[in-house]
Write a structure and sequence with these properties.
By secondary structure, the protein is mainly beta. The chain is built from four helices and 23 strands. β11 and β12 form a beta hairpin.
Length: about 425
């Protein structure tokens, strides 16, 4: 079991090296001189804003060009994401509890970076910049022709108060000033601003309002805003096998009777980057039944007795299985992935039976002894899971899942169970709320 787990982990880690796999999508680059280059851009799992992008003129071409914020003005992956090059100030104060300063941290740096276009409207545009420190949002006013300005949000420990946290939501004042300039500075909108937290979804709603009703917009840059989550439901065939180690009656020569029964799963996927959907955190709840058994026949020299030992259990389990899933091949029509996770399982036993049958060859009789509650196996345990599968058309997930565990409560020997499931899951794609 340990070898299987180690092997899978090696394969799983190796799959991350497949980041080198190209994922060229239609797009365009506006070069620093103003020329627009149309072709294909290597769309990566950008958890932070990219520092460079790879471009080629044709999908099958071998010549690639690298563009950085210093050598380009604008980059767009058609219908998915866009980045705007900008020389701008970047605040450096942490908002993580472990890195908070005592008193407001107003430090900043100036750099030319790719700002991600969250939404571009005719009046104002919302952009973002994520690096190792934090995510920041920027607002650009088109009427005044000014460069994007960071929407400032600071979090820190109050001076002289070791554990009292304070915030400076300066972005609220900035948004209110923009609303007044663009003729939407109502009391109702001010209340919305004051209740808005510093997240992309909430800020986007305010920026849409400032830009005006949908029908009055000139030509907003609209991207396919995919949801960060989706629901999953699956039906599986689950095979459960059981074995016992050398200290038990079933050590050598035992016959396994495997269990083949259905398993139902429901789950939730969370994407690291909804645009690429390459790295996924899947949390899955499953319910299944299992009733494997072991049989061993023992004959004794110079004895008319032959003994048949049987151990069987009937088990209903509910498991929670968080997994890290990585699509090492990632296209719209086909994805191929590996996944690993941990499993917490609760089991209820309807049968836990050890049966001894003695056959007497001299007179053809037999005796049967049944011991219920014989092993009293574990009712809760943690284990691991490994998984491999394919996704067709972003709708059907066909996969194989493996788990293993020792459910024995006896220190003398183990009861090793292995579960291998083959299943089909349906992926419920959610539309991003506009």
């Amino acid at each position: 079991m340990k070898r299987t787990f180690t092997l899978f982990l090696c394969l799983f880690l190796c799959s991350f090296l497949l980041q080198a796999q190209n994922n060229f999508r239609p797009g365009l680059v506006v070069a620093i001189a103003g020329d627009t280059l149309r072709g294909f851009i290597d769309h990566r799992e950008w958890l932070r804003n990219p520092t460079e992008i790879t471009f080629k003129a044709t999908a099958s071409g071998s010549t690639e060009q690298k563009f950085t914020p210093a050598t380009s003005r604008y980059v767009q992956i058609t219908g998915l994401e866009a980045f705007q090059s900008q020389d701008t100030r970047i605040s450096m104060g942490s908002v993580d509890l472990s890195g908070l300063s005592h008193g407001p941290d107003t430090t900043s740096t100036r750099a030319t970076v790719f700002l991600k276009v969250e939404y571009a409207g005719p009046k104002v545009t919302l952009l973002s910049y994520t690096d190792v420190v934090k995510t920041r949002f920027y607002l650009q006013e088109h009427k005044e022709g000014t460069p994007p300005q960071e929407l400032v949000y600071r979090k820190y420990y109050a001076v002289g108060q070791q554990n009292q946290m304070a915030t400076d939501p300066i972005y609220m004042n900035q948004l209110w000033a923009s609303a007044i300039k663009n003729g939407v500075g109502t009391e109702d909108f001010l209340r919305k601003i004051k209740s808005t937290t510093y997240t992309a979804q909430n800020l986007l709603a305010l920026v849409r309002h400032i830009n005006g009703p949908e029908e009055t917009k000139a030509s907003p840059t609209a991207f396919a805003k995919k949801s960060r989550t989706r629901f999953v439901a699956g039906l599986w065939l689950n095979r459960t096998t059981m074995s016992q180690d050398s200290e038990s009656k079933f050590a050598d020569g035992a016959t396994q009777q495997d269990s083949y029964l259905p398993k139902l799963t429901v789950g939730l996927d969370a994407f690291a980057n909804p645009a690429t959907q390459r790295l996924v955190i899947r949390t899955e709840l499953s319910v299944t039944w299992a009733n494997p058994s072991l049989r061993k026949e023992v004959s004794y020299t110079h004895s008319p007795i032959t003994t048949l030992y049987t151990y069987e259990y009937s088990q209903l389990t509910a498991s929670l299985n968080p997994q890290v899933l990585y699509n090492f091949f990632n296209s719209d029509k086909l994805k191929m992935y590996l996944a690993a996770g941990v499993v917490g399982t609760y089991a209820h036993y309807f049968k836990d039976r050890f049966t001894t049958v003695n056959y007497f060859s001299n007179d053809g009789t037999q005796t049967t002894t049944v011991a219920d509650g014989y092993e009293t196996p574990q009712t809760f345990w943690y284990s691991y899971s490994v998984r491999a599968g394919i996704v067709l058309f972003n709708k059907l997930d066909v996969a194989v899942l493996y788990t293993a565990n020792d459910i024995s409560t006896r220190p003398a020997y183990s009861i090793n169970t292995q579960s291998t499931s083959l299943g089909v899951s349906y992926l419920f794609q959610r539309k991003k709320a506009q």
